[in-house]
Amino acid sequence: MARRPVLGSVALAATLAVALHGLCQWAFVAPAPGRAGISQTGARVSGKPDAFAQPGSVLAAACGVASSAALVALASRSSRVTVRANPGSPSLIQVLEQKGLLSTVENLGLLSGAEKAGIKVSTVEELGLLKLAERLNLLSLAENVLTNGSTPFLVLAGAGILAAGSFLCATYPEGSFFQYFLTGALGAPALLLGGAALVILLVFGGTRRTRPIDVTEKEVSYGEGGFQSQEVLRSASLLETVEQKKVLSFLEENRLLSLAGSLVDRPLTLTENLKLLSTLESLGVLSQVESLAASKGGGALPGLGGLVLLGAALAALTLLPSYGVLVALLLALPGLAGVALGVGIGLIKPPVRGEAFSN
User: Fold this and answer.
1) What pTM was estimated for this model as a whole?
2) Is-annotated flag, keyword Acetylation (predicted)?
3) Of 19, 121, 202, 260, which is least surrounded by CB within 10 A?
4) Are residues 228 and 322 in the same domain?
């Protein structure tokens, strides 16, 4: 059964009810002639408006902030959107490798710290976060936003507009509930957007595409001459392919993360101690796998190489009776790794339109 955004709806309804109450008081409960009302006392003692000295102004601003948060919560539970990787931009995996973020996570001990805090590798699975991220396309959306060079400037522009609106509302001499409600509703998103823009600019700026991830698709259109097809290039990142092929749902439904946690004691700490993240980052393994998956027959080379090594291991086991077992073992291990890599790349190959009709 699909969950409904109950918490966001309740929060939004509560804040709108409080706002409506304040608006009714402001609009219909006017002070008597010659007598200052509540909103007029304390606001102009020395002839100057004191912005947040009025009763209810802080409550109004808090309601505005809460309504903005409720709207964000409702928007996050909306229907999924289709997000494509930015043409010519690096994938998020390439950005992580170029900026050294994987090794930074490892050096800061964030993985072991998470396990010490009680967050296990199966926690995301138990909370249903994998399916949620896949249903809302959160991975590809984050990749599209973070790797787009214009994102921080657009976000800064939006933050500036909201901040200007919040400033105008805060300095308006009327001093109404609705004024401070708008001040909070506009000011909180402006602050968050400004901070997010600076983080994106500092952390993800100055990167470039290091490996090709484009796939060729065929688009069929109908015109005066009948059906016509043309080839177009599309960027296909690994995160986008993982969402399209429902890999996250497969992991969660089959409880594979819980299985890994039961087989290995503290797997996140083990990953950190073995320096796996920094090794993958320095060798560029993840971006190489992503590029091979996007290329035609990318998994064929490691798969065929693995089969050749397995054949050589079998031949050594047969032809070298004295020390053939050792030679066969040394050949079989990389052979199995090559076959597994080839099969894995084939499984994460991005779907391509018109590929089944190509010759």
Assistant:
1) 0.68
2) no
3) 202
4) no
